[in-house]
Amino acid sequence: MAKSIANTTMGSMTELPAWMNIRTLRVIIFMLGFLLYANTLSYDFTQDDAIVIYDNMYTTQGIKGIPGILEYDTFYGFFKEAGKANLVAGGRYRPFSLIVFAVLYEFFGNNPFGFHLFTVMLFSITCVVLFNVLNWLFSRRFKSSQALIIAFISAVLFTGHPIHTEAVANIKGVDEILALLGSLLTLCFLIKYKEAKKLKDVLAAITVFLLALLSKENAITFLAVIPLCFFVFYDEKPSTGIYRIWPLILSVAIFFMLRTKAIGLAFGNEPMELMNNPFLKLSGNQYIAFTTGEKFATILFTLGLYVKLLFIPHPLTHDYYPRHIDIMSFGDIGVILSGLIYLAMLVFVFKKIKEHILYAFGILYYLITISIVTNIVFPIGTNMSERFLFMPSVGFCIFAGYGIHQLASRFFNKNPKSLNYNAALAITGIICLLYSFKTFTRNTVWKDNYTLFITDVLTSVNSAKLQNSAGGELIAKAGKTKGTAEKTRLINEAIGHLEKAISIHPTYHNAYLLLGNAYFLSEKYDEAIKQYDKCLALYPNNKDALTNLHLAYREAGKYFGEKKGDLKTALEYLNKAYELNPQDYDTNRLLGVANGISGQHQKALEYFVRAAEINPVSEAFNNLSHAYYNAGDKVNGDKYAALASKGQESK
Questions:
Q1: Is domain 463-581 classified as CATH 1.25.40.10?
Q2: How far apart are the C-alpha atoms of 237 and 625, rounded to whole Å?
Q3: Do domains 463-581 and 582-651 have the same CATH topology?
Q4: Would you list the domain boundaries of the chain?
Q5: For residue 119, what are the contacts with CB-CB under 8 A and spacing of at least 6?
């Protein structure tokens, strides 16, 4: 084991053909990863990319924004106000991935191509590193040819697995990739230190592990994975393996020091908002916490769903928010089956760890790395997510890779002690072909937000968040549509999604806001006003709702005045619009017109004066001129008529 991981060639390779050398297999893995996701290079930003890239005030500053990224929580640059770190319990501090995005923004600006290219390259490199690490570790337990083929199969399964589409096709998923890559490299450097005792390897391990932690917190699970690797593949006692990770405590200490400075010491309480805490249920008109039984039954059900998606990655969706995962009990068959699966895993590990070493290692790796995203260790703000399987799926791929190796050796070979690599590669090829088809077709969904939301809402029918997002995208598309019939269709479809979101989550203030926007766009101003009022009743300081409510009152006044000839109703709406925003030019102008037509010339004059003060343009002066004439003031009428004429001439 004296050679570096980049040049591992232990033992004889006589059992394998010449083309199956390490360099060729690395190229195959890299190209597989790149080609599977090459279609994403032309895609737009999607989903949470706004938070970490194009709507983040620090990322969009490029390199100059790095100090701000380090100083504040991950959400601050997007929301641009303090306190948003507590949207999810404990806050989020993942500056390294944002720093990467800032550097990319420096070179590519708001063009998603560069970001997608980087993400696909990073993923492909990570797959190659995984292959190298597995080959290195497996060589401790198997002949070099066997180790190579098992590592290759495992890495190919990982590369092609459709469960990774979210982490790779969605640029924000770079944090998942960086966390795994940094964790794998940390293991490499600690193994190199064990063999060569060079201080530079320890320093490298400390550095890359810190970067992994600063990418995403789940890298911390490698504090258990690394001792497990030394125990399984180097026959070290658990206490010795734990001793190996002592340098990483420095990385953890630095991480928590930076995190505490940005977010504070408190990890926070679980918020009482369903979109940030899935373990809430309605009781009367308010949300209360699940019972302990309901919470842990629901968690156990999602753990079973994770296993199902690893074996059968269909259907896939980016959204598992409430109530895509329903409230479960320990009497539900899905919960019982999940419990039996995980119990079987634990029994197998403790009884067969020495006899079936790779099976047991794969299971233990999976259990360790998934633990942090189960909602058991700490709340994660949602029931589950496919991207959370990015790191744990390595364990599944090792388990499956070794299983294929065993299948090929025992059932497709006359000599069970030798390796039938043709059978192993054939089985892997069939699985990889199925995986690749699913991965490539699933990638097309990530083209843009509209495609993503409208596609996945058919799967996550009971997700309030996705129903709301689909409604929002349909409204945005309707706003850009010129054809009346198509615009109406889009708005009606949006209303359907938003009403579904509200039926799932009756206190979802953002759904009421968007529903108001849909009615506003269809000129149903009374209904729009009702929805904005409901939004504000739930969230009184919602700036968008306040702004849109004012616009709804103003446009309703304009509609009743100009199209219905109902000046009384028009004035009622316009006066309410004025109460909400007395500094709006159009509101003052319309009040001037309505009062003038009603014969209230003095009031009309007051509003036209205010309109001209707010926006001193020829239109305002012209209106003011007529108002003065109607009030019997010819001098000022002539004065503002001249100003209006002058303004028109200057144009």
A1: yes
A2: 93
A3: yes
A4: 463-581, 582-651
A5: 37, 40, 168, 171, 173, 174, 177
In this structure, are residues 358 and 399 in contact, taking their beta carbons and an 8 Å threshold? yes
595 versus 89: the higher-pLDDT residue is 595
CB 398 within 8 A of CB 154: yes
Residue 648 pLDDT? 54
Distance between first and last Cα of the chain: 81
Helix (H) / strand (E) element for 313: namely: none
pLDDT at 240: 84
Specify the pLDDT at position 226.
97
Question: What average pLDDT does this structure show over 404-413?
Answer: 81
pLDDT over threshold 70, residue 35: yes
Give me the pLDDT at residue 31, please: 98
Phi/psi for 202 (5° steps) reads: -65, -45
The CA-CA-CA angle for residues 114, 164, 149, to 5°, reads 105
Q: Tell me how far apart the alpha carbons of residues 635 and 627 are, in angstroms, rounded to a whole number.
A: 12
For residue range 83-114, list pLDDT tens digits in order.
555 566 567 899 999 999 999 999 999 999 99
Which residue's entry shows tokens 């938003």?
498
Q: Would you say residue 137 has pLDDT above 90?
A: yes
Burial (Cβ within 10 Å: 0-12, 13-18, ≥19) of residue 391? buried
Residues 6+ apart with CB under 8 A from 160: 32, 36, 431, 432, 435, 436, 439
Cα of 342 vs its chain's centroid, Å: 27
H or E segment to which residue 288 belongs:
strand 286-289
Q: What share of the chain is helix, strand, coil (3-state, %, to 5)?
A: 70, 0, 25
Judged on CB neighbours under 10 Å (0-12, 13-18, 19+), 544 is middle
Instruction: Identify the three-state secondary structure at position 281.
Output: strand
Query: What is the rounded CA–CA span in Å between residue 162 and residue 144?
Result: 29
Cβ–Cβ < 8 Å for 233, 140: yes
Q: 547 with 584: CB under 8 angstroms?
A: no
**Residue 267 pLDDT:** 59
Would you state the structure tokens that stand for residue 562, as one six-digit string? 């100009």
Q: What's 554's DSSP letter? A: H
- Residue 553, Cβ density class (10 Å: 0-12 exposed, 13-18 middle, ≥19 buried): buried
Query: Strand locations in 417-503, DSSP E?
Result: none
Residue 204 in this model has a pLDDT that exceeds 80: yes
Nearest Cα to 475, choosing from 456, 457, 497?
A: 497
Q: How many helices (H) and strands (E) would you count in the chain?
A: 29, 2
Which pLDDT belongs to residue 411? Answer: 73
Residue count of the chain, please give it.
Answer: 651
Question: Residue 78 — left, alpha, or beta (φ > 0 → left; ψ -120 to 50 → alpha)?
Answer: alpha
Q: Domain 582-651 belongs to what topology? A: 1.25.40
Return the pLDDT at 315: 97
Calculate the alpha carbon distances from 216 to 106, 310, 388 in Å. Answer: 23, 22, 11
Interval 226-238: pLDDT, tens:
999 999 999 888 8
List, in sequence order, every residue forming a beta bridge with 283; answer none if it has no partner: 286
Alpha-carbon radius of gyration of the chain? 31
How many Å apart are CA 588 and CA 585, to the nearest integer? 5
pLDDT at site 422: 84
pLDDT band (50, 70, 90) for residue 3: very low
pLDDT at 415 over 70: no
Give yes or no for residue 67 having a pLDDT over 60: yes
